[in-house]
Automatic annotation (TrEMBL):
Membrane topology: Single-pass membrane protein
SUPFAM superfamilies listed in its UniProt record: Immunoglobulin
Natural source organism: Hippolais icterina (icterine warbler)
Any Pfam family the entry gives: V-set
Listed GO biological process terms: regulation of neuroinflammatory response
UniProt KW keywords: Disulfide bond, Glycoprotein, Membrane, Transmembrane, Transmembrane helix
Protein location: Membrane
UniProt GO cellular component terms: external side of plasma membrane
Family: Belongs to the CD200R family.
Descriptive protein name: MOR1B protein
GO-annotated molecular function: signaling receptor activity
Classification via InterPro entries: CD200R (IPR040012), Ig-like_dom (IPR007110), Ig-like_dom_sf (IPR036179), Ig-like_fold (IPR013783), Ig_V-set (IPR013106)
Domain Ig-like: 1-93
Amino acid sequence: VGNSSVLTCHFKGNATVLTWKITPKVGGLCTLGYRTDTDMADRKNCSDNINWKLRAGLAPALEIQQVGIAQEGNYLCEVASTDGNFRTTYHLTVLAPPRLSHYCDEQGSAVCEAAAGKPPAQLSWLPESSSSAEEKCHDNGTVTVLSKLTACGTNGSNVTTCMVSHPAGNWSQSIAC
């Protein structure tokens, strides 16, 4: 989420017509077309952050600026060239790093929350102790994971560390309750 992504069309020969067909998980089909003989581009039902990236000497590409969860889906590039027809398919998966918080609840138990992550974050505790976890799914495909420490450590220390593991990164936060 928030980064730019560039998807390249692969083909041989000289392109005459290039078309991107984008099928997002949410929303309707977006198409971008380009004819080299007339140097004309056409777009239908595409968000403003999706555009051609045409560079001299390099294969034509599609650039998605400020990628959002709404751009997740299938991207198909079709090229008609002097050497035949070519297709390149991508499946774009968008990762959303969770927002982290760590606090003590009313009973003095440590609570760790990884909010609005995609996919859901994995939470664990150091020192290892009993904990309960719950997930809340959101309409946009993100998930909030909340883990509550249910047993105290046996080493005499009340400092606990919540370990958060996610494809977008790993974090840890310590707290004493």
